[in-house]
Amino acid sequence: MRTLSRLTALGVALTTALTSIVGGISHAPAAAAQPLDVTEALVNTPRNIVGDYAGFYQHPNKYPRKPGRVIRTQDFFKFLTLPKGEKPTYPLRGTRVMYTSTTSTGRVVPTTGAILEPTSRWVGKGETPLIVLAPGTLGQGSQCAASKTIGSVIAVSRTQDKQNISTILNYETVGVLQLLAAGYRVFVVDYIGGNTGPQSYVNNIESGHVMLDAARAATRMNRTTTRTPVGFWGYSQGGAASALGTTLHKTYAPEVNLKAAYVGAAPLDLIKVNKTIDGTRITAAALYGVNGFAARFPAVKKYVNSVVTPTGKEVLERVSQECVMDSIRSTGYLRSKTLTKDGRALYEHMRDNPTMRRIMDEQLAAAHKTPSVPVLVLSNPHDDIVPYAQVWTANRKWCSQGAKTTFIRFVFKDEAVGNGKAHLRPGTKGVAYGLDFMFKAFNGSTPTKCSVKTVVHQ
Length: 458
Fold this sequence. Notes:
Elements: H1 2-19, E1 32-40, E2 43-44, E3 70-80, E4 89-102, E5 108-116, E6 130-134, H2 146-149, E7 154-158, E8 165-169, H3 172-181, E9 185-189, H4 204-220, E10 230-235, H5 237-247, H6 249-252, E11 258-264, H7 270-277, H8 283-296, H9 298-307, H10 310-319, H11 324-331, H12 346-352, H13 354-367, E12 375-379, H14 388-400, E13 405-411, H15 421-442, E14 451-456
């Protein structure tokens, strides 16, 4: 209870700060509406430990076999419990959405997200745009799904096996509140597998599909039309999802009226990213990736099981049920070579095993296709989690293929390499650049050529 009290106190402080920001079936059946969920916002205390959400996330036996179809919805309110006993306000009105999307192996499966209504009037041209937002790394356990806690910053819940209490830090709430206050309707995605097994972490092809199918689902819910301007938004894991949403747009969902994308610190070359992450504060992110690809590809699962030690298997299983705050405590600064029988790091196995290397190469090839819309790209040369060089390489390829990008070289150096600060700081500061870029794009001002801007932050 002492921990929960601390979380509540932190929530009150965050509330004060954030309040200033906010001013097979061949055809889709009618989406089923679930009971209304009214949940306290910034700190979700024991009422959320059960985390059943009136059964909303239960995997359906039958669902449409075409992507972008709505399976069920659940309206919810998130309200801020203001300090000093003031009356709660309701800055967030949202709807959880279960909809269909396509895995990287071609299967149509359910996934989830949440669409949130703007808290201010859109002052730009035309109708209110839709921002599809892909979260950064929140964790691989089902309790970490962004749609469960969006509007909150901290939550507590049980892990899927009900054995442990998990701490959930949904930092995406801060950026979402700013987007809503700017007049945008925002659809936050959960990624495939986030509620039915290990999240398909950095399976960027699937993440791109999820982004595009979220836009399709919003139209089927009558929250948007086929003419509604759409923007993609993401940083880190979300940056890769946003990027692949643009590179797969024309071949996967050309009817989506995509106008622009913000791509921050995107992990696109997964072998290089895993090498950089290994041994850092969030080593678990590399393990999430291994779990996700093993869940999707039986040959990968068989190979991973053959090379890791019994302890390695236990660690992989444990992190598959954790959120990132749990994983920092459990596996921070762990080196994956301690989990393998031959003492080689898992990224080396990804590089050298033909099956895993083929899958990684397919992911990179999809990332290097040409974005269909103008893109704001942001990366830090000193990023200690997602290496700058692979983001810059992708940007150069996109430009050589005719894409129009604005590249922000966000320079921020932190002496303590591996703690993630040089990765996180540009993410929080980058929101302002993303807001400016999106507003201009939705009002007809898009870049006519590739450009690079250097911004230095202390």
